[in-house]
Amino acid sequence: MVILFLTAAVAFSSRITSVILYESIIHEYDPYFNYRATLHLLDKGHYQFLNWFDSNSWYPLGRNIGSTVYPGSIFANKLFLSLIRLFRINNGTWIVLQMKISVEALILHETTILFTGLMVVAAFLHKFLNWLHITVHIREICVFIGPIFSVFTIGVMYLFGKKIDNDCTGLMSAALMAVVPGSTFRSVAGSFDNESTAIFLMVFTFYCWIQALDSGNIFWSMICALVYFGMSYTWGGYVYVLNLIALHSFFLILAGRFSSKTYVAYSIVNILANF
User: Fold this and answer.
1) pLDDT band at 74 (very low <50, low <70, confident <90, very high)
2) Residues 105 and 198 in one domain
3) What is the pLDDT of residues 159-193, one digit of tens each?
4) Is residue 9 situated within a structural domain?
5) pTM of the predicted structure, to 2 decimals
6) How far apart are CA 74 and CA 52, in angstroms?
7) HEC-encoded secondary structure of the chain
8) How far apart are CA 42 and CA 123, in angstroms?
9) Which residues, including other chains, have CB under 8 Å from residue 240's CB and lie 6 or more apart?
């Protein structure tokens, strides 16, 4: 466990080097647009966000934001705010004040491709910290969301490797994920892009898939589909995940290892994931 914590510390510290040496800033164009979109969601709400036409993007044509983004992170932040309001009353006691769910927030506009997961997550973390009376600007949340989720990814990779073989395999998998360039490049501080959260969701989806195959449990199959659903709201690379699951099932058939567990797991995941 100590080695795992040290690995997570290395992963986090290596990704915030630019902040330590210089300052906390958002890098490149897409991350800065995602930051602007998160601010718009917090200030205007999800309805205005879905119908927002940004004349400053894709100039001079402009951009219809509701139909061209993956707003999973944006709406995750908004969801956190809604949950916080459910438990807050004036005297500071935290109880269930109301159980009103905004169903219309889950209905897609007919021109909307996907909700953007990245901005939702950032908004959620911002509101959650404010709920804890920790005042943090939303920009800082956007800057550090990549390193934070890289730590979560390390934990899932450890569980993944441990599930496949043993603790040593899990620690080796976590250590490789902590320093692999492909993951590090997309989750450094200031890289507020879709991959900063999607990598974690992708690895988590594969872990749940292996759990579903091994146990034949409907619960793990549903969790796998749910995590995949979250990833599809965050990153366009979700198509590769579902195709890899299908390819894995196909090779299990060729290898003569197809069983009722595989049938149950793939049927549930495929049906729910394509729902």
Assistant:
1) low
2) no
3) 999 998 889 999 999 999 999 998 898 899 988 88
4) no
5) 0.79
6) 14
7) CHHHHHHHHHHHHHHCHHHHHCCCCCCCHHHHHHHHHHHHHHHHCHHHHHCCEECCCCCCCCEEHHHCCCEHHHHHHHHHHHHHHHCECCCCCECCCCCCCCHHHHCCCCCCCCCEHHHHHHHHHHHHHHHCCCCCCHHHHHHHHHHHHHHHHHHHHHHHHHHHCCHHHHHHHHHHHHHCHHHHHHCCCCCCCCHHHHHHHHHHHHHHHHHHHHHCCHHHHHHHHHHHHHHHCCCCCHHHHHHHHHHHHHHHHHCCCCCHHHHHHHHHHHHHHCC
8) 7
9) none
Residue numbers of the domain that contains 250: 194-275
Residue that terminates a domain, selected from 142, 159, 185: 142
Does the residue 73 lie in any domain? yes
Total structural domains within the chain:
2
Residue 40, in any domain of the structure? yes
Do residue 29 and residue 123 come from a single domain? yes
Say whether both 130 and 208 belong to one domain: no
Residue with tokens 């269930």: 96
Flag whether 137 is in a domain.
yes
Residues 201 and 119 in one domain: no
pLDDT at 269 over 70: yes
Q: Determine how many CB atoms are found less than 10 A away from the CB of residue 129.
A: 16
